[in-house]
Write a structure and sequence with these properties.
Number of domains of chain A: 2
CATH superfamily of the largest domain in chain A: SPOUT methyltransferase, trefoil knot domain
Largest interface: A-B, 36 and 36 residues
Structural class of chain A: alpha/beta
Domain RNA 2-O ribose methyltransferase substrate binding (chains A, B): 31-103
Helix content of chain A: 25-40%
Organism (chains A, B): Vagococcus elongatus
Oligomer: homodimer
Shape of chain A: elongated
Strand content of chain A: 15-25%
Number of strands of chain A: 12
Distance between the termini of chain A: 54 Å
Keywords (chains A, B): Methyltransferase, Transferase
GO molecular function (chains A, B): RNA binding; RNA methyltransferase activity
Radius of gyration of chain A: 21 Å
CATH class of the largest domain in chain A: Alpha Beta
Protein name (chains A, B): 23S rRNA methyltransferase
């Protein structure tokens, strides 16, 4: 294991750049940190380009597996670890992975979640995690969504992008493609023809579109949907957080499918 | 309208302290910022102790109502506004309010949400907002929850604490009190006797307990519940975000009640 204690080390300077979106895009790499995420990647037998650990982490953990997971494992000082972390208190382990999209498999083996310009990293990560939990076949991110390889999205994702396909598509062409392939498109909106989600049973293969935090799903996409759904507001709140709304709809619709098919 | 351009101004120095929990507790005051939250407070006819606005905000908004809402309205520079804000880009308006709990009304006019040591400010705020949307009668925070008067909770709350009672209680005594008053206590857990939430119909007056992000609901409280519920995981995610889980359960149980009663 090589040791690095200097912030000026070339490997560290290079890796630190991955905290910035531009450099992630250029290199196709990204950083994950914390024991849980690293373990999730190891379960998938992913190869790390580099792994960084602190002495304290090694002292408290079984690290045999880590040493096999990358040819480049670096022992770094607390200060160096801090420079690689997007957290106020780094967790003592970080790794560099290649960005990899699991491809969507057709015919679909479950419903899809589609995000239209969801901007908050926590919302994007949480929605993917919920899609994973609810047994969805994949998540599609249209343009203008938060970058799933950012530290914040990775933290709320909790490794779900290792479990199910999370792919980026232009919705202008991808939604018509889904329709042509017999996938029922469900929007979320409060228009006159929208239906309360509990009073609606979807077809087995459907795609649910959730929209931007302030503006909802874009009109041009709502016009393509087979049906728009909404969640009734019983109290005085004006709306629900979009990740909560997605959870209610994903589980609600999944429940209908489990009952019927 | 008085004008303040100096960061050294005594009113500003005093108000800035409200960004810290300790000072909020000492004074019983708190800061809210942004047009939406201020409007929500105005709807409730709350009296602001102080209001701070920037010239830019005044130029772009109808501010007549604001001038009535407080005897102390201050025109402040962008720099001064920034010093009062917990946001990277302040929204040009902030106000000081007294912390006020709407009391819970018995008999309850709907279900309760109870939080046991939910620590993330975004989760606490989002759960209260969802309880508001789902028509719950109130939210009870046990010890160890995030401070609802912090900037982060206020942002995710979106004014819901103006709509429904959000009260702090010691759960050790409050849960037995609810039981004695015939409120059905529902926990969330994965024990052997726990039931899938979709297969359970609650009584009309129930209280749903959601727990800490990592540890769930404390054992001592789970032992007091009439029934524990869980959300099935169909995919590979280990768990759901607690605010999403709360949304699924709150709407799921509310739906059962609407069907039955």
């Amino acid at each position: 294991m090589k040791e690095i204690t200097s912030l000026q080390n070339a490997t560290i300077k290079e890796t630190k750049k991955l905290l910035k979106p531009k450099y992630r895009e250029q290199t196709g790499d990204y950083l994950i940190e914390g024991e849980h995420l690293i373990q999730e990647a190891l379960k998938e037998a992913l190869n790390f380009e580099k792994i960084f650990v602190t002495e304290k982490f090694i002292a408290n953990h079984e690290t045999f597996e880590l040493l096999k997971a990358s040819t480049d494992v670096f022992l770094v000082s607390e200060q160096v670890m801090k420079s690689l972390s997007s957290l106020p208190t780094p967790q003592g382990i970080a790794g560099v992975l290649q960005q990899q999209e699991k491809p969507l498999q057709f015919p679909l083996e479950g419903p899809l979640l589609i995000l239209d310009r969801v901007q908050d990293p926590g919302n994007v990560g949480t929605m993917i995690r919920t899609a994973d939990a609810a047994g969805y076949a994949g998540v599609v991110l249209g343009e203008g969504c938060a970058d799933i390889y950012s530290g914040k999205v990775q933290r709320s994702l909790q490794g779900s992008h290792f479990h199910l396909p999370v792919v980026q598509k232009k919705l202008e062409t991808f939604l018509p493609f889904l329709k042509e392939n017999g996938i029922q498109l469900l929007g979320t909106a409060l228009d006159e023809e929208a239906k309360i989600y509990t009073e609606f049973t979807p077809e087995k293969n459907f795609a649910l579109i959730m929209g931007n935090e302030g503006q909802g799903v874009a009109q041009q996409f709502l016009q393509l949907t087979d049906r728009n759904l909404y969640i009734p507001i019983h109290g005085q709140a004006e709306s629900l957080n979009v990740a909560v709304a997605a959870g209610i709809l994903m589980y609600g619709l999944k429940g209908k499918i489990l009952q019927k098919y």
